[in-house]
Protein: Competence protein CoiA
Amino acid sequence: MLYAQIDQKLVSANEVLVTQANFRCPGCGAQVRYRHGQLNVAHFAHISARCAFEAEPESAAHLMGKLQLYQLGTQIGEAQVEVVFSTIKQRADVVVEYKKNKYILEYQCSPISRTQVKQRTRAYQQLGYEVIWLLGPKYQQSKIRKSLVAKFNDALLIFYNYKTQKCTLTANFNEVDFQSLQSISQEYELDQLLQVIKIYKKRVFWQDSPTTKQVLIQQSIKIQQQLVRKNKEWLQIQQECYQVKHNLSGVPWICHPKKSMPLGLAMPHILWRSRCVLLLEHYPLETIFAVSKLQNMFVKQGCWLTIDERLCRYIVNQFIIELVSNQVLTRIGPGKLELICYPEWYANWQFKTNSLKLN
Ligand SMILES: [Zn+2]
Structure:
């Protein structure tokens, strides 16, 4: 931490005159020690036990980034560093007031659990702050996974690199089963970043691209591989398929989304759509569904990330649109759909991919 308490007063590690004194943590009140290394900025560190107020153990990167974000904050508005919120037992890295909004900037350099992120975010929100999680270099260097986006609970990720002093916003996430996550990244100054985030709160963006024939064939082969490798997630649905004499490796083409999808499903789209198709087969042809009922039925077949409800709705509706255009369902009157045909299953992936090559 950059500030400690001594004789009821706050002192900055940059300004201490005596390095050996009875310094205390402004949060928990425990004793802290002054430290200043060659690589590290001057700071205070707890002597024993971890502090309940801290979101993460202090590292050189964290100290440096926090200090920089505070300085950047002072350039755009009112800023404070290491703000202790006693009622919620949390210490915010940086608090910034910018254009009448109160922000908390949390610079996260070490691993953190989803529960912790949620709990800390909610506590600050209840006090009227908007929380911006800025992820450190370790996060920025690794490949972005769905779980990371879901952890920080938004349809976007923000990184802060203390070496370049730049904020990077990564958003417009897009996924195709068995392919790496697509996204768009752009660097911003802190004030620009806060404005761009506002736009993203109002609307979600993603760029979709059509799934090519080549990708469809790759996906079919990958499904087969998952089954051969006895991947639990896939084997479980295969069991459901066997019960109705289907083979998951010959799953109907309708289960492969025709374009890339925004983030929303925790499971692969193909698996979710397979479950929906299996469910439809429980109903006799000519069954009439209210669209809202069908949407709910489909939602229940999935395991969802709690990213943005709008994205989940889009994913479900896109599937229904494809079912209609493939004449599995047909629209009859407002808000009603009739089941007119079951999607075609193939005996195995070879038959399936051959059917595509012939078309
Ligand atoms: Zn403490």
